[in-house]
Amino acid sequence: MHIHKIRGWEMLSSRITPEHVFFNRRQFMAGAGAIAAGLMLPPAIGGAEAAVNPAFADAGRAVTPEEINTTFNNFYEFGSSKRIASAAAALPTKPWTIAVSGLVEKPFEIEFQDLLKQVSLEDRVVRHRCVEAWAMVVPWTGFALKDLVALAKPLSGAKFVRFETFNLPEIAAGQKEGLFGGGYPWPYTEGLTLAEATNDLAFIATGAYGKELPKSMGAPLRLHTPWKYGFKSIKSIVKVEFTDKRPVSFWEQLGPAEYGFWANVNPQVDHPRWSQSQERMLGTDEMFPTQLFNGYGEWVAGLYAGMENEKLYM
């Protein structure tokens, strides 16, 4: 007999929406509190159909209002303020090409719309935890990162995946030389182990709130790793490289004492300048106790077995 173990972030069967409602995307998203009642969703993101992933139908908290999540963003390419939505609107995203390189069978470039035709799109509602101790819940559309890994066909020597965003200082003011006092290592880079990248939680978001991904949130595609602090979820990806060397990411280069490679959420490991024991939900005064791995530990904790000497939580 098959026994399914309910993980801490999954819905109990008693709370699952009836099937005839669940597989209607408009009612699913409205039931999750993602959009205003009656708002018509497009049939697809980028012309491809998305299916609801039942394992990610409930984040355990209310969905953060769309108007907050699209206008309160860390996107330093466009400035140090979180109100960068209007500046980010200048980013040209059509067409958009992603280069896949490194230790793969054959390096290639693929246009974003063509990539969508080769992956399985799905809807997920998951939590997001910023290292600054605020949190939100987002209804994403996108695909499992492992789908992109499968397309890349990494060689046996590949151990890590390095991501890189655009470098357009003529459009993105934050990338201009001298801004923020200079010394920022543009373009923004991030990395995961191959094991992390192929975990079911690792996600490439291509939409939010039933719409194409807003530019302020990292259009046209961004990484989302909900068990890690938000700076790991690199936006507007243009390069994906498979390598045998651990990448040194953007914030790790700037402040290795504060921002490490792993950046897994842990309430017991404070940032050097503030506590990580609690988090504030955006748009509210609600405070929640921070959870190890942001509450997704039953899904990802095994990735770090035997790594006690690593600084997994910074």
Describe the structure.
With 314 residues, this protein is an alpha+beta fold. It has one domain: Oxidoreductase, molybdopterin-binding domain (Sulfite Oxidase, Chain A, domain 2, Alpha-Beta Complex). The protein contains nine helices and 13 strands. The strands form two sheets. Strands 1, 4, 5, 8, 9, 10, 12 and 13 form an eight-stranded mixed sheet that branches. A five-stranded mixed sheet has the order 3-2-11-6-7. A hairpin with a 4-residue loop joins strand 4 and strand 5.
According to CATH, the homologous superfamily is: Oxidoreductase, molybdopterin-binding domain
DSSP summary: helix tally: 9
Q: What series of H and E elements makes up the topology?
A: HHEHHEEHEEHEEHEEEEHEEH
CATH fold label: Sulfite Oxidase, Chain A, domain 2
- Whole-number average pLDDT? 87
Largest β sheet strand count, sense and barrel closure: 8 strands, mixed
Task: Please name the defining characteristics of this protein.
globular; 314 residues; Sulfite Oxidase, Chain A, domain 2; eight-stranded mixed sheet; alpha+beta; 9 helices; single chain
Helices and strands in order, then pairings?
Elements: H1 19-22, H2 25-31, E1 50-52, H3 66-69, H4 85-88, E2 97-102, E3 108-111, H5 112-116, E4 121-129, E5 134-144, H6 145-152, E6 160-165, E7 189-193, H7 194-197, E8 203-208, E9 211-212, E10 222-224, E11 237-243, H8 250-254, E12 278-281, E13 287-289, H9 297-300
